[in-house]
Amino acid sequence: MLRLGLAVLLATVSSAAVAGPATKEQLMAPPAGARHYTISSVAGKHGDIWSWRTADARVAYRMSMTLRGWVTETDELMTIGPDKRPTAIEIRGFTDSGDATESFSVDSGGVAHWKTAVDGGAAPFAAKRYNTYGGPWLAGESDIEALVAAGDTGIDLLPTGHASIVVGNPVEITGPQGPKTVKLAFITGYSFSPIPMWLDADNHFFGNAGIISLLPEGYEAAGPRLKQIQDDATADMVRDVAHRFLRPANATPTLVDHVLLFDSVAGKYLPDRAVLIANGKIATVAAGGTITAPAGATVLDGRGKTILPGLWDAHRHVGGDDWNLLQNVATGMTNYRSPGSMIDETLSIYKRRAAGDLLAPDGKVSVIIDRKDPLAAQGALTVTSAAEAIAAVDKIKAAGLWGVKFYTSMNPAWIAPAAAEAHKLGLHVHGHVPAGMRPLDAVRAGYDEVTHINFIMMQAMPQDVVDKVNTAARLEGPAKYGKDVDLDSPAMTAFYAELGKRGTVIDPTLTVWEQLMTSDGTAMSPEYAAFADVSPPSVVRGWKIAGYPLFGDLTRDDFRKSFTKMVGLVGRLHRAGVPIVAGTDGYGLELVREIELYQQSGLSNAEALQTATIVPAKLTGMADRTGSIAAGKTADVILVNGDVSQDLGNLRHVDTVFLDGYRLDAAALRRASGMSGMPQ
């Protein structure tokens, strides 16, 4: 993937070699005077990247980053050929997705060879350019210069793909040397949607701006302004898409007849039903063949299809990617709960969606509050006292948002007073469990909900793990000890019972941990396999990861056994009466797999589907207008090919999406969001 695009914006994954990664101590050290970029967010600095020329004229890069405890340590040596294309690349080190070792070279016969932990191959180099799988983000700058030089024709990539760039108008910013001219550019071919980049006045790479920014040292303060400019430019592009779909011709009445209907409230599938949608609402639900379509209505034959409430992703961080919101609609998501977005981005989404300028699901948003710390969450409101935490809660309420999310570096003593303030203001309280607390401690201090199954597993973890959950210990602890936890012990059973009695909601995000804990580079994770044939090649390559690096004497099989315990934990929580909501903490494409895992944990097909329909609607206070198919409710509905009662995987086969009553062709939505066809 292009490391300066997907790497920053879509969470870079890395590669691995059988021999294992180079350690931090074995990686190159940047010399004095090396060019220096920083990785930062509004919460603070998260890492550094340096670049320099070696004595043998190669280009060197060194990256060091700690992001909320997840560590990346990589370096790279690049040999540039006479035509300015890299002819040899060596990458070493590791990320939270595995060993980053990668090699590329061109032999004397003009054949290119590459090797990563997830793939390897050879092909004629010809006029193509190798698209690295991982490595320090800054090393993609040579690719950007090649794209600029290629102009409208773009460049062909190895192993596959084609990329191009469009350069926009200049903008002046201020930095250490005074005013500087930069230009916004958009790159296509590496992602589902155009990726924003910033170039300098001479069209060389300048930086990335986003929730996480990569900018030259001293220019960090310019990040928010650059991000706003690129967000505005993206909004202009997606406005045209929204207007194309949200037009009067798509708002006429629709009758779906003779269809299998999922009654999310009763948790049942009802055969041969008819549903009339008109004026943005569900007008009538009745037996098949008993509703007369009004004049001018579109009639859809529902035979062989299932109609159900539009899906919810209860852990979908919105903001910063309008295109992803469009893709969410294309895959059947009509609603979301965002457990952590920035206030300004959230208000922009709400405003543009209400105006019909953004095609996106509807939802509720909470904002992250974390202690000011190097391990603080990016995008968080950072605080240094209980009083500041309470003030942050007040700020979230004043913005008109739905909830507060506390994070792992919070001082445990601040949770109760801040949660009390949130409850006084009618806000939902949820989050990660702060270091030093167990989940039951957080619930007793005021949490209405705990996010991520690994934090639920913390109830059974050793104290030294609990004390360091604002580091990678929040995964490494459950990965190491989870396989040995007795899920049916008296202590754990009492834990489930108290959560059930309190009505504490659990947002497991199993798909986050399935990929990291079970992957070994030999196959694509089930979260993404169904989308592989219809997604851009660079995206598909990045989905295949080597898995979280092993440590100690643990094996991948140990990790898999621990993940199996996480899945089993969800089933036991459900049986104890604990509400489960389906969330992905990802693109949203992972949602159906999340539901499938709940079924594996012991929920029935219908119970698993309720976690992505009526349960989150109730959680957010929106069940009076969405989450089920009933007369008078907003027409947030999807029609899918196949019988979902027999196979939840049919949820991926979206035929038609009704969003606020607009009848939207899912095939056209998929094309607009960067997919080439129907997922498997």
Give the helix/strand layout.
Layout: H1 6-9, E1 35-41, E2 44-53, E3 59-67, E4 70-80, E5 86-95, E6 98-99, E7 102-106, E8 111-115, E9 120-124, E10 129-130, H2 141-150, E11 155-158, E12 162-175, E13 178-188, E14 195-200, E15 205-207, E16 213-216, H3 223-245, E17 254-263, E18 268-278, E19 281-287, E20 298-301, E21 305-309, E22 311-313, H4 322-330, E23 333-339, H5 343-354, E24 362-371, E25 381-383, H6 386-398, E26 403-406, H7 412-424, E27 428-431, H8 439-445, E28 449-451, H9 453-457, H10 463-466, H11 473-481, H12 490-502, E29 505-507, H13 510-518, H14 526-529, H15 537-543, H16 556-575, H17 591-601, H18 605-610, H19 614-619, E30 637-641, E31 654-659, E32 662-665, H20 666-672
Parallel strand pairs: 10-11, 17-20, 17-21, 22-23, 23-24, 24-25, 24-26, 26-27, 27-28, 28-29
Antiparallel strand pairs: 1-2, 1-16, 2-3, 3-4, 4-5, 5-6, 5-7, 7-8, 8-9, 11-12, 12-13, 13-14, 14-15, 17-18, 18-19, 21-30, 30-31, 31-32
Helix pairs in contact: 4-20, 6-7, 11-16, 13-16, 16-17
